[in-house]
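Tokens as discussed.
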């Protein structure tokens, strides 16, 4: 069986990039750190560290073991937290993750309600992109997070997480003010944008993959002349007349001057926003309280910014 103490040593070497820095963090000697790593390598029968590199690099096996170690220590921390809460020695805590557009729209009223009803809970908020939030949920670094999925992101839909649907967020067309399509009275079809220069996310981003998927279904491929994953920057580029874009409704709740936002009659992709948590993670009272705050926020905010609420508050 792998010794958990040696796993902690390996993780500290990975985090700090050297045996000496890991030794300082663990209050051990450098020799002791080296011995722990060497013993762990014998236990697993594989080399875990590339010695002689600066900073120290892990082998493929070392990366794999460190990734699992992160999850193990997160679960142990959950256990200590829950036991301390039961014994009354420690206040509740909640480690919450969200993607940027939700942080700016759905989360302010949710945080306000949560803080008002549970002032003793320590809330830690992580603002990150979808592709990094999901792994942090799976390893137990986060107790709860807002995520979204779509047909173009099968790797997200396939993750084994408990999900509470909150809102459907349709993408909307963003055009320069005065653009010929902005003057149309009838609702736009996605195919109306087929001949336009596009501004959008980087090719591997969730944003671009969702957009490209919808455009292919509409019979064309968007050719982005400029790429950015910053929705504000994209709006500014659109306002300068450099192209059109398709942006989630939450991200254009407060559009920049110089752009026109138009709903699509059909073919608009929709992000399905949900609150997700690990199935075997920490499910204490703070998690339940934040879920209720999220339900209330979605019911309150989503309709006013073009999204469809899927959650009704119980209060």
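Sequence:
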């Amino acid at each position: 069986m792998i010794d958990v103490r040696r796993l902690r040593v390996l993780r500290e070497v990975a985090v700090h990039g050297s045996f000496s820095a890991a030794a300082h963090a663990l209050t051990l000697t450098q020799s002791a750190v080296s011995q722990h790593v060497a013993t762990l390598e014998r236990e697993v029968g594989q080399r875990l560290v590339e010695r002689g590199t600066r900073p120290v690099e892990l082998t493929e096996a070392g990366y794999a073991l460190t990734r699992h170690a992160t999850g193990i220590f997160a679960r142990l921390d959950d256990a200590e937290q829950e036991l301390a809460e039961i014994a009354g020695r420690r206040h509740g805590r909640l480690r919450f993750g969200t993607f940027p557009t939700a942080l700016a729209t759905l989360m302010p009223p949710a945080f306000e309600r949560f803080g008002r009803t549970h002032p003793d809970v320590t809330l830690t908020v992580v603002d990150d992109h979808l592709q990094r939030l999901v792994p942090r949920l799976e390893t137990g670094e986060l107790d709860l997070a807002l995520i979204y999925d779509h047909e173009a992101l099968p790797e997200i839909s396939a993750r084994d997480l408990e999900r509470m649907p909150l809102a459907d967020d349709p993408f909307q067309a963003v055009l320069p003010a005065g653009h010929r399509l902005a003057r149309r009275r009838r609702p736009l079809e996605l195919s109306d944008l087929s001949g336009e220069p596009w501004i959008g996310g980087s090719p591997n981003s969730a944003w671009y993959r969702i957009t490209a998927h919808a455009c292919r279904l509409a019979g064309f491929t968007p050719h982005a002349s400029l790429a950015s994953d910053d929705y504000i920057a994209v709006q500014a580029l659109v306002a300068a007349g450099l192209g059109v874009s398709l942006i989630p409704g939450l991200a254009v709740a407060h559009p920049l001057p110089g752009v026109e936002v138009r709903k699509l009659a059909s073919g608009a992709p929709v992000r399905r926003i949900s609150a997700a948590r690990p199935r075997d993670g920490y499910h204490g009272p703070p998690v339940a309280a934040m879920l209720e705050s999220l339900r209330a926020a979605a019911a309150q905010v989503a309709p006013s910014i073009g999204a469809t609420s899927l959650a009704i508050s119980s209060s």
